[in-house]
Design brief:
single chain; Tetracycline Repressor, domain 2
Length: 217
């Protein structure tokens, strides 16, 4: 017989797994603790032992998604050239969106609980953004002083908007209506990263496709 503590941990993990399945099938709007309990075959009060509210459950699902996303970005190949590192960061971002569409949509395409009430939820998201700012800081440094914080933030938002826009478009069926050649779709990640680098005055390698991230998404 399983130890009570083990059963408790198992129920918590079961709730999180089932919550993600519900979101995948019905969107965030379909998530409730009662529905989680129903699908798990437990009393409707059982999930409340681990999550005081539906938002607490959703916040933990989101926290884990951002944590996995940040780990993926941290694990990217790194180089001494900050422009190359920025390109590697962009390739890693696009790869994560392609390989993990549900967590990606959950992080960036659904209404989230109030971060003020769930501060841990966005900790890894801030870390991921800090990786981008660090690349831009190193690209803009002139040896004695770095790029002003406000300018770095604006450039970071520009880069994020461009890469996120491409990642989001490639997840929809909209491109199939345009009749674009497969070669155009396959080249779009490296082309976008090249244009971002050019806009920032960077001299780096956007990628040669050897990582597999320049395949049609």
């Amino acid at each position: 017989m399983a130890h009570p503590a083990a059963r408790t941990r198992s129920l918590r993990e079961d709730c999180l797994r089932e919550a993600l399945a519900i979101i995948d099938e019905a969107g965030v709007e379909g998530l409730s603790l009662r529905e989680v309990a129903r699908r798990l075959g437990v009393s409707h009060q059982a999930p409340y032992k681990h999550f005081p509210s539906r938002d607490h459950l959703l916040a933990e699902v989101v926290r884990r998604a951002f944590a996995a996303f940040a780990r993926h970005l941290d694990d990217r190949p790194r180089g001494e050239n900050p422009a190359d590192d920025l390109a590697a960061l962009g390739r890693a971002y696009l790869a994560y969106a392609r390989e993990h569409p549900l967590p990606y949509r959950l992080m960036f395409g659904t209404p989230l609980p109030d971060p003020a009430h769930h501060p841990e939820m966005m900790r890894s998201a801030r870390h991921a953004f800090a990786l981008l700012r660090d690349c831009l800081d190193r690209m803009g440094a002139d040896g004695s002083k770095g790029v002003p914080s406000e300018a770095t933030d604006l450039d970071a938002l520009f880069v994020w908007s461009a890469v996120h826009g491409l990642a989001s478009i490639l997840q929809t069926g909209a491109l199939s209506t345009l009749g674009l050649p497969p070669a155009v779709l396959a080249s779009s990640p490296s082309h976008t990263l090249l244009r971002i680098g050019a806009a920032l005055g960077a001299e780096g390698d956007p990628g040669d496709g050897q990582s597999g991230n320049d395949q049609p998404l």
